[in-house]
Amino acid sequence: MKKTVSTFKKAKNNQKLSMVTSYDYSMTKILDQAGIDGILVGDSLGMVALGYENTLSVTIEDMVHHTKAVARGAKNALIVSDMPFLSYHINREDTIKNAGRLIQEGNAHAVKVEGGREILDKVEALIKAQIPVMGHLGLTPQSINMFGGFKVQGKSKSQIEKLIEDAKLLEEIGVFAIVLECIPEKIAKLITEKLSIPTIGIGAGRYCDGQILVVNDMLGMYSDFVPKFVKQYKNLKMDIEEAIQNYIEEINNGSFPEEKHIFKIDEKILDEFE
Ligand code: KIV
Ligand code: NA
Predict the structure, then answer these.
(1) Is 43 near ligand 1, meaning CB less than 6 Å away?
(2) Which CATH number fits domain 5-235: 3.40.190.10, 1.10.8.420, 3.20.20.60, 2.60.120.10?
(3) What is the mean pLDDT of residues 223-243?
(4) Residue limits of CATH 3.20.20.60 in the chain
(5) pLDDT value at position 222?
(6) Cα–Cα distance for residue pair 233/158, rounded to 1 Å
(7) What are the tens digits of pLDDT across the range 52-81?
(8) What is the spatial distance between Cα 92 and Cα 69, in angstroms, rounded to a whole number?
(9) Ligand 1 atom closest to the CA of 179, numbered from 1
(10) Whose C-alpha lies nearest to ligand 1, atom 8?
């Protein structure tokens, strides 16, 4: 069944939502056919697919390019595309244009932006332009230089108050869901109970309305840094290493390719060349 932002809103208090990131066509096709509710073309792209140290170098061009590939692979999942660093901070016009590219060229159904009160007028502009918006609070990786690193958020009284207020503000302005990243479970539970839109947790415990993980993390394909909240459902790094080692060995000892992998030619035609 095709998932929409209405599917997401209706899931609140009824059904848990499953999300995962993706950056290309082949992976997306597998995720979609497995029945995932939502696919985020995350700006984590910068780290897991492009090899940057953080997400700050990702451009709107990068996001459009990868969103196109992902959208071609999905039939049923809701496609959300991340707005990269500084693409929604300058003014409302630029924000709408940039988000518009993710929708119009990229074929995403919705965009995600990091932050609360600081970007509220931009979120409002997007929603007025009929672009569905997913919020993102807590450890928002585009603010890494302000936080001084990837650190759990929402631990002090002032941080908790700000988180709750920002979640409320985003809900009031009309976002259809909010990602909560790296905050204590009890704070995520509190926020989830206060909202009538779904929360999607990553490192935010068991009481969110849904969960999201970076696909390379959960499949064990990205080992530069494995956060505490990641569960590795597979160790594909090991499987891939083993497959590649077998391949190298078989090339060297002549056991690949086999007869079934080759193309043949009519011997009579060949005779003319021998
Ligand atoms: O870019 C990303 O992968 C994300 C998720 C971790 C929520 O923003
Ligand atoms: Na992101």
Answers:
(1) yes
(2) 3.20.20.60
(3) 92
(4) 5-235
(5) 84
(6) 36
(7) 999 999 999 999 999 999 999 999 999 999
(8) 27
(9) 7
(10) 42
For residue 274, indicate whether it is catalytic: no
- Does 44 belong to an annotated binding site? yes
Residue whose Cα lies nearest atom 2 of ligand 1: it is 42
Distance between Cα 257 and ligand 1 center (Å): 41
Query: In degrees, to the nearest 5, what angle opens at C-alpha 30 toward C-alphas 210 and 46?
Result: 70
- For the chain, what is the mean pLDDT? 97
Q: How many Å apart are CA 166 and CA 259, to the nearest integer?
A: 64
Q: Rounded to the nearest whole angstrom, what is the distance from the C-alpha of residue 34 to the centroid of ligand 1?
A: 20
Q: Which two tokens stand for residue 155?
A: 């631990």
User: How deeply is 50 buried, as exposed, middle or buried, from its count of CB atoms within 10 A (0-12, 13-18, 19+)?
Assistant: middle
Q: Where in the chain does DSSP place strands (E)? A: 17-21, 38-41, 78-82, 110-112, 133-138, 177-181, 199-202, 210-213
The reply to whether 239 sits in an annotated binding site is no
| Among 181, 241, 259, 267, the one annotated catalytic | 181
Pairing type for strands 17-21 and 177-181 reads unpaired
Say yes or no to pLDDT of 227 above 80. Answer: yes
Instruction: Match 């990068």 to its residue by tokens.
Output: 62
State the closest ligand 1 atom to the C-alpha of 141, by its place in the atom list counted from 1. 8
Q: How far is Cα 192 from Cα 204, in angstroms, rounded to an integer?
A: 11
pTM of the model: 0.97
Cα–Cα nearest to 110, from 62, 167, 40: 40
For residue 112, the ligand 1 atom closest to its alpha carbon is 8
Sequence-distant (≥ 6) Cβ neighbours of residue 13 within 8 angstroms: 209
CA distance to 108, 159, 240, per residue, from 153 (Å): 29, 7, 35
ipTM of the complex: 0.99
